[in-house]
């Protein structure tokens, strides 16, 4: 097992604490309440630049020291944020050019947050000066457990289009391409006569007339993500130079809807992967998205323990309809993150703000105070998390299945001029993840750099852009025996967004044994039907349906598992299988449409049977997550029942949450969670 980056003990139960919003009388109640709730770590200082540097070079660290001393005395450790997300108003006044400029050339105004250009020299100069002062003041404070750089870097300010950003972008392009000819080739500037004579002639992809050069936009996305990582590195280097033993991280935003930063690259720069996750309130089964994001976060941390830096006790306030969590939902969410590898779970925020933009966002201490459901549930949850101390440091059980997830491929799907607006990369991946989740199968969602050959099965879902290197790696794994499942619009273009010619999906065509000659996307709301052939009698449905997409494909070395039955594609292959790729290879499966959930469940079920993928435990019931964490000499089975019905899990051991011992069939009440220390590891 790897050494643990966090100095604190047990599984962390924490919250972001913003005492600067409260008077001293209120603050004096906070720490006793934290102790009552079992809080073991708080994040401090996230938005406190203005309170710590009240004017240019005028610092006030006294209040923060007082809070840290008191927390330490109460046994609560501190995740200390560098407050660089929100520069103070005096700095904007002195450097108005520091503000963000959007795509249309408008410089953004006051009143919100993170409104600074990532390439601004003034911002960096002041931010790094403050980081150095903060590290000198608190780098050796006994409460300090970890540094937290900025806040959700790039959340609102990834893409700035000002002249300073333009200059930085040109420099980044010079370093990437060396010569302008190479850039012209990569960007395909022969199309629409866009040839550049000099790097100095290139602008960021500002608002323009119609469809925009996709490679130009893609490189701006790469540049902008790299800028955020460079800003992190600059702060980290200062923190490390002053307090070399304190780990450093920042809170990622691994969610379904935020794609702007390449966390696959960023993860290599942090000592501990930390994530913020909020439920999508519109989604009645949002626990599925949580599971997918937690698996992605674990994939980023290479299966080492990670930290959930923020989630909410109940509703947020930034979605169209902010749905309150139901009783027990916060507990299930918290334990689901821990099940999937988190060694700590924290809330935004400790006390619900009385004013400001986020006053209707839930917190541990709500507006109504401590005689509330939220408070009672939080206190009970703190006690439950404390009982899980021995789980700390174990890792999720070795998954047999990997889904490859790539940020650059995600960006590439968002570019102009594609066959349909209905294609969604995250929907494709989540559909397969959900089908596996329903079978109780553990999945690692991994970046392209991961070692794929250790998995029994690899899934490539909607991975539109694929480098030669990744394609080679996938093919190599399959030739050595890994089973492969690929869904439509994968492996279509290379890293420059140039199409792999000769029939789609060019990067994997030979391995799959198919050749797609034409995309035939569907109208909104339209569906296609498919008939299952008799090749795989184990497929649970005879007729399958899909939406969004279809295509005209031919089998070269594969055979059809299902064929289209609609008139336009009548009898053409829809889902194909190549039984074995080479003498020792695995099978290669291809799905050419977006399958409806029951159809996908049937195909994924058959794929798992062929690939011999087994669930973590046998479950009787539906909407139940089962996932295992394992240490050198012990294992823990987490069972989470999201349904209103009782379920049963086949396992034996002791429930850490209740102390009950079970010998085989474990009942799981509606909405309940069990964490079973298994009888045999
Ligand atoms: C993010 C931020 C927090 C807060 C929450 C609200 O995660 O980091 O400061 O705005 O969202 O959900």
Description:
There is one protein chain. By secondary structure, the protein is α/β, with parallel strands linked by helices. The protein has three domains: about 40-270, TIM Barrel, CATH 3.20.20; about 400-610, Class I glutamine amidotransferase (GATase) domain (Rossmann fold), CATH 3.40.50; about 620-680, Immunoglobulin-like. The chain is built from 17 helices and 32 strands. Strands 14-13-15-16-23-22-21-18-19-24 form a ten-stranded mixed beta sheet, sandwiched between helices. A nine-stranded parallel beta sheet has the order 7-6-5-2-1-11-10-9-8. Strand 26 and strand 27 (about 635-640) form a beta hairpin. It is globular and about 75 Å long. The mean pLDDT is about 95. The structure holds alpha-D-galactopyranose (GLA). Alpha-D-galactopyranose (GLA) binds near residues 151, 278, 358 and 361.
Highlighted features:
single chain, 681 residues, alpha/beta, TIM Barrel, Rossmann fold, Immunoglobulin-like, ten-stranded mixed beta sheet, 17 helices, binds alpha-D-galactopyranose
| Strand content range | 15-25%
Main β-sheet, spatial strand arrangement: 14-13-15-16-23-22-21-18-19-24
Instruction: Report the sheet with the most strands, covering strand number, pairing sense and barrel closure.
Output: 10 strands, mixed
Just give the CATH class of the largest domain. Alpha Beta
Summed over residues and divided by their number, the pLDDT gives a mean of 96
The radius of gyration is 26 Å
User: Distance between the terminal alpha carbons, to the nearest Å?
Assistant: 15 Å
Helix content: 25-40%
Our count of domains comes out at 3
CATH superfamily of the largest domain: Glycosidases
Tell me the number of strands.
32
Based on secondary structure, the structural category is alpha/beta
What assembly state would you assign to the polypeptide chains in this entry?
A: single chain
CATH overall fold name of the largest domain:
TIM Barrel
